[in-house]
């Protein structure tokens, strides 16, 4: 790839080389999964569902070394379930990837 906007691009480049179409597909899959997990957190009706969704988001972010998203997921797990401020930050971080 001719650009590098962060850890995700470096991981994708290492895995698939210069195949831009595949990189875009994988980036889309990653952000889609992250959005789905953030939505699960938003819809969580109990502490356990919040915790599981945040833990899965942390694992997804860790797979690609996206530190900011890892930290936000950890903040969500250690804070109050359903915290709208952390959800806004998570959604913003996903949009910036």
Explain this structure to me?
This protein has 97 residues and is mostly helical. The protein has a single domain (7-96), classed as Four Helix Bundle (Hemerythrin (Met), subunit A) (Up-down Bundle). Helix content is 78%, strand content 0%. Helix 1 crosses helix 2 (20-43), helix 2 runs antiparallel to helix 5 and helix 3 packs antiparallel against helix 4 (67-78). The two termini are 16 Å apart.
How many separate structural domains?
1
| CATH fold type | Four Helix Bundle (Hemerythrin (Met), subunit A)
Helical proportion?
over 70%
**Helix and strand pattern:** HHHHH
Number of H- or I-type helical stretches: 5
Low-confidence stretches: none
Write the layout of secondary structure elements.
Blueprint: H1 7-16, H2 20-43, H3 47-63, H4 67-78, H5 84-96
List descriptors.
97 residues, mainly alpha, Four Helix Bundle (Hemerythrin (Met), subunit A), 5 helices, 78% helix, elongated
């Amino acid at each position: 790839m001719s650009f590098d906007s962060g850890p995700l691009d470096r991981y994708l480049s290492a895995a698939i080389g210069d195949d831009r179409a595949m990189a875009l597909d994988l980036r889309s899959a990653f952000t889609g999964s992250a959005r789905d997990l953030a939505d699960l957190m938003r819809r969580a009706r109990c502490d356990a569902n919040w915790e599981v969704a945040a833990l899965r988001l942390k694992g997804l972010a860790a797979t690609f070394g996206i530190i900011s998203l890892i930290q936000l997921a950890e903040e969500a797990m250690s804070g109050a379930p359903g915290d709208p401020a952390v959800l806004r930050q998570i959604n913003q971080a996903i949009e910036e990837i």
